[in-house]
Amino acid sequence: MSGEFVAFIGLALAAIIGAMLMIQLTKVVHMVVALVFTFVSIAGLFVLLSAEFLAAVQVLIYSGAITIIMLFGIMLTRHDDQEEDKVSWRRKILILIGVVGFGLFMFLGIHNLSFGDQAVNLHEENTKQIGIALYSKHIIPFELTSVVLLVALIGAIILAKKDEKEADEK
């Protein structure tokens, strides 16, 4: 068993456990911490795939920026804590069967997947290749993404102000 395989299994289990904790926890801040745990594990998986740029982006964008935005969203909005009904053990078993079935389906779908000669040099200078593709072929979608993010930020601020005014009126 190679060290890379052990690292993959450890990071994959950490990502799955973080995702399951995110779904199972009830406090929102704990859910965000579990989500960060998952994002960092996925960044580790990117490192194992020789995609260091994607790993850095994963840590900076998702683990940093998206998590901070989620925490600000939690702090800016009002939400009532209500106890939800517990899920029965039958439903948990059905969910487990569904998750295992989906995992098996995905494994069988990619088990014999071959990219041919297309994926030979992807691990060499992958950051340079991403930069060239992003700023030559895909510059318009890249800029449109920044506009969409700006509109979402403005919308979040407007919604937060609206909630603030409604709370003052009551």
- Largest sheet report: none
Architecture of the domain at 1-71, according to CATH? Up-down Bundle
Low-pLDDT segments: none
Report the structural category. Answer: mainly alpha
The fraction of residues in strands falls at under 5%
For this structure, what is the CATH class of the domain at 1-71? Answer: Mainly Alpha
| Spatial gap, N to C terminus | 64 Å
Organism: Bacillus songklensis
Subcellular location: Cell membrane
Keywords: Cell membrane, Membrane, NAD, Oxidoreductase, Quinone, Transmembrane, Transmembrane helix
EC number: 7.1.1.-
Write the SSE topology.
Blueprint (H helix, E strand, L loop, with lengths): L2 H22 L3 H21 L3 H25 L12 H22 L15 H12 L1 H31 L1
Helix pairs in contact: 1-2, 2-3
Notes on the protein architecture:
With 170 residues, the chain is mostly helical. Among the domains are: 1-71, NADH-ubiquinone/plastoquinone oxidoreductase chain 6, subunit NuoJ (Four Helix Bundle (Hemerythrin (Met), subunit A), Up-down Bundle); 125-170. Helices cover 78% and strands 0% of the residues. It is built from 6 helices and no strands. The protein has helices spanning 3-24, 28-48, 52-76, 89-110, 126-137, 139-169. It starts with a helix and ends with a helix. The model has no long low-confidence stretch (mean pLDDT 82). Belongs to the complex I subunit 6 family. This is NADH-quinone oxidoreductase subunit J. It is a multi-pass membrane protein. Its main location: membrane.
